[in-house]
Each structure stands twice: as C-alpha cells, then as structure tokens.
Amino acid sequence: MKRLTLAIFVIAIFAVLSLFIGVSDVTPQTLLSNSEDGRALQVLLISRIPRTLAIILSGASMAIAGLIMQILARNNFVEPSTAGTVESASMGILFVTAFAPGMPLFGKMLVATIFALAGTALFLRILQQIPLRSVLIVPLVGMMLGGVISAITTFFAYRLELLQSLNAWMMGSFAGVLRGRYELLWISLILTLIAYIAADQFTVAGMGQDFTTNLGMNYNRVMTLGLIIVSMVTAVNVVTVGMIPFLGLVVPNVVRLTFGDNVRLAVPWIAVLGTGFVLICDMIGRIINFPYEIPISVVIGVIGSFIFLYLLLRRNARVA
Amino acid sequence: MFTNRVMNRQSSRFFARSAYTTLLVLALVFGATGILFAQDVEEVTITHNQGETVVPINPETVITFDLASLSTLNALGIEVAGVPDANYPESLSLYASEDIAKVGSLFEPDYELVNAMEPDLIIVAARSAAVYPQLSEIAPTIDLTADNTDYLNSQLHNAEILGQIFDKEEEVQAVWEDIAASVEAVNEVTAEAGTSLIVMTSGGEVTAYGPDSRFGWLHEELGFVPVIEDIEEATHGEAISFEFILEANPDWLIVIDRDVAIGQESEAAEQILDNELVAQTTAWQNDQVIYLDPTNLYLVMGGLGAIQETIDDIAVDLGIELDSDEEAVEEVTEETAEEAAEETPTEEATEESSE
C-alpha cells in the first residue's frame, strides 16, 4: 500500500509537469502575475487541464481494458488491439461517418461500442473452437481477425474516399483535446470503477468456466460484463483520442509479473502505471519536436513494441 | 549441264542487277512517301523530368495519371480517354463518369487496360512518376511533375508542353494571362492583409503547412505573409495543437479540409476549428478564415483550371472582383448561394458516396 501511494505521488508530479508543457506560455509565474488579460489561466483551463485529464482517463482505462481482455481470453498477449476490438470499433465509426455523418459524438460512440462488442464476441467464439490454445496462437488469431476486419473497413473507406480520414481517426493523439471535447472519457472512469468492484469475480473467472461454476458463480454473466467494459472503453477511447497501441498489453503484463493474477491487487497498479506510461509518452511527443507534436500512438508504438518483444521473447514466456 | 549453269549464272546476274535497280527505285519512292507520311503525323520531342520522349502532335488516345495535366487539358477543351479512379472536383466531374476508362489508381496503373487502349500519349506526374519506366514501354510517356519551389512557373511550363503537343500554344497563353492577372490582383491585397497560416484538418487533427510545403505557393506566389517562416517541409504537414494557432495568431487562416469527401463542404473543418482557443485569433474574430477546395489543392495539385479556381475562391474571400474573370467569380458566388439554399446537402452527398 505504501508503494502504491508513492507511485501515485510520482505520477501526480508528472501530471502537474504536463500542465506546464505546451506552446502557450503557462508557468506558475505567468499564472500568478495574471498579466496579459489572464491568458495563461485561460489556456490552463481550456487546454492543459482537459488534456492531462484525458491522458489520465484513457491511460488508466485502456490498461484495465487490456487486463480484462487477458482474463476473458485467458491469455497474456491479448488486448483490444490484438483481438479485433479496436478494428471493429473503427469499422463502427466508418459506418456512422458514411451513413449519418451529422450524428453527435455520443451516438458515434454507441455505434462504435456495438461494433466493438460484436467483434470481441466473435473473437472469443473463435477461441472456443481452437483445440490447442497455445499461448502465442491466441494473439495471432486475434491479430488475424483484426486484420480481416480492418481489411473490410479499409476497402469501404477506400471506396468512400475516406481512407486518409480513417487513418487520422485511428492515429491516437491528444493534440485535439480541449474543454468540451474529451468529456466522453469520464464514462471510462465509471467503467474502470465497475471493473474494480467486480475484480474478485474476474479473478475467479480467470481460472476457467468449470472452476467458476463450481464456486457458484455465473460464468457467462462475468464474461458478458467484461466484454461490455472492454468494448465501451475501447469505443470511447477510439472516438475521442484514437488508438493507443500496446498500452493494454504492456502495462498489465508488467504488473502481473510482480503481483500475480489477483485482479483486486492489480487494478490500482495497472491504472496508475497506465496513466504514468501515457503521460510520459505524451510529454515526450510534445517536447522532442516542439512547437509541433508527435502523436502519442507513434511514441508508444516505438517504446511499447520493444517491451512487447521483450515479454514475448522472455525465457519463460511460454509458461505464462 | 555446264553450259546451262553458265547461262544460269549470267541470267541470274542480270536478274540480280535489275532487282537491285528496282529495289533502289522502290526505296526512293517509299522513302519519299515516307517523308510525306512523316509530315502527316508530325512529332515533337519533349524534354521532361525523366528524359526526352518523341510524342505525336495532336495524339488521339490520351491517358493521364496526372490530374493537374487533366485540369490543364480540360481548360484547353481537349478530351482525355483514360483517367485514374479518383474523387474528381466539380470542374472535372465529366471524368468521374463510367464512360471514361478508369486506368488504375493515382499511383498504380492497370497495365493491361492501358496496353489494350493503345494510347498515343501517357502523362504521369508526382504520385505516378515512379511507374514511368513501365508505362514508357507501352506508349510515349511524359513526366510532368511540378516543382513546388517554383510552383506557378513550373505549372506554366507544363501547360506550355501540353500546348505544344496539342497545338494550342496560344490558348495556353490566353488562359495563363488570366491567371497572371488574378495573381497580381490577389497580391495587391495580400501584401497589406497581414500574416497568415495554412492548416489542414483531418479526422479532428490539425496540421500546419509552411512556405516550402505543397501548399507553399499560396505564400510564395499569392503573397500571403507566413505567420511562421520555418514550418518544416512535410508531405502531410506538422501536427499542431490549438494552442499553436492561438500563439501564432495569424490575421488570415487558410483551411484545407481533407475530410471534405464526406460531402459536408467545410462543415467538418469549421467544427474542428470552432473552439475557445482558435476563437481568440485575429483571423477568427475578423471572419478572415478561407476554406479552400481540397480536391483542387490536395488532389489535383495544379493545372490551369484548378489554379484559376483556387485563386477565384481566394479572391471571393478577400473581397476582390477579378476584372479578367468576372464570370468565374459570379459562378462561384452562385454556387455558394445554391449551397446555402439547399437545406441538407449532406444526405445527397452520402447517397452519392455510398453508391
């Protein structure tokens, strides 16, 4: 518990630092001096605080979505972007853009959620049909399914001349986050809290259907709850900031290496480390090409893929 | 036997000699007609970005993978037989129809179809420049990639090459004089208009473009003073935050909306930019935001027709009446009026694109 408090404290320092990185001149001095018609305060309220909140919300929720995904599929190398969930959500967004471009953001998110639900359910269904569930086969199947779904999406995007727009939506970036443009992400806070409350049930469900039923729990209900949480979190994130690759994979795995499979213990750590990972990567993206930005998905893609490879090639990966 | 053979040799020598003479005569005759034919199908040697190509004057079957050249040819009233499958702007909508052969994408030709059409001339540029070697084996091919650092001159140069090939040099000059006059008229206003920033919106994200970029000619040639000099050259611009626009605080904001394909005519770009930070800039407060047709700028990338249309659009926003091209300006204003009259342009566009 002490260590967790310390971790939260460190992340909080990073969050405060993040408030003072950007093109406009926002420093503690300019905030206090209150010169220049209070622009510093304005930028802080309109841009910096919302951006930092968005980072915290999406970092924590995507990492936890990854954890739940790993429990549902009973495999450590699965996360929304390696199970077809992200691709399905983006297909949903394309669907809305093509047929009802004027739909408000909330509606877009709902459609994306429905698509994400269907895609993830399909993935779990396919997994049931695979007799030998080797550790590496499962994410491979997920990536293949994601590949098929995104191929269909790409085809229609190409026909509708929306290919480059599709790429732009999927590119995860916090550059466009402003007051009034990220609030949907608060939904993922609620979902994260639900995941925490149901943590023990997920721990049990992680031990398999027979075991869960033996303990008198409704396995299917737990699975459905997990499915809904993962799909909604993914949809909300894809709609507001785009796709952040590897996050849901790297963070839960690092945490579980230390804490084992106890979900109640793992959830707070995953939330904190997920937030920290995204915060630091976004700060890097804002600093190295200042005053321009490098999208977070690029920064995390580079760092995350190295950690992913390390996890895959680790000597006892096959035992995981 | 022996005498016979001598006889034969003599006669064969005679025949050989007469055959020789006949051949010589024939060669002369055919040679002369050959020259006559050559004068019938005149040819011109074109020097382009990837070497020299001998091209027939007034080629019949023309295929272009370059939409800028298509725009020029269209402005000169020349029909093209094959074009790539792409999203055509209003002025080139003729080529969107299925009656015109679609010979591949903007990047990749459908070689079998190109071959089957037996073209007399193929034009490539920029996106399709890489397939020049393959296409030049099928038919005379020229590469008219424009030079972004000397945009208008290079566009004129390309137009002149086309004028030469299609024997329309005077027409090119006439269209060009109109453009030059418009450029001058725009320059007079932009010199006094203050600073400007070119941005492109796409899927909620904003990127900035500088004088060296593909849209740099708006700065360099139309005289819009860049608010920041050194935005690096990048194909899709530099990703920026809204704070960047706020701090740069341009007097004019030039917006290119890449999402316009969904048919919401700048609506999406306006939604993205309409926020508390951009609202504080001089450009937004003085209503000095110019939305440009992305198909002309981003897709067609030049050509006489597209350049004139882009400048006309800018002129309307700057409040300039172009003397040389009043009709075009009127047309544009009519179009905007029509759009305003239509209540739901979105539905139509969606139907179109979902077909």
Automatic annotation (TrEMBL), chain A:
InterPro entries: ABC_BtuC-like, ABC_transptr_permease_BtuC. One of its GO terms (molecular function) is transmembrane transporter activity. Signal peptide: none annotated. It is found in: Cell membrane. Pfam families: FecCD (PF01032). PANTHER family: FERRIC ENTEROBACTIN TRANSPORT SYSTEM PERMEASE PROTEIN, PETROBACTIN IMPORT SYSTEM PERMEASE PROTEIN YCLN. This is ABC transporter permease. It comes from Phototrophicus methaneseepsis. The lineage of its organism: Bacteria, Bacillati, Chloroflexota, Candidatus Thermofontia, Phototrophicales.
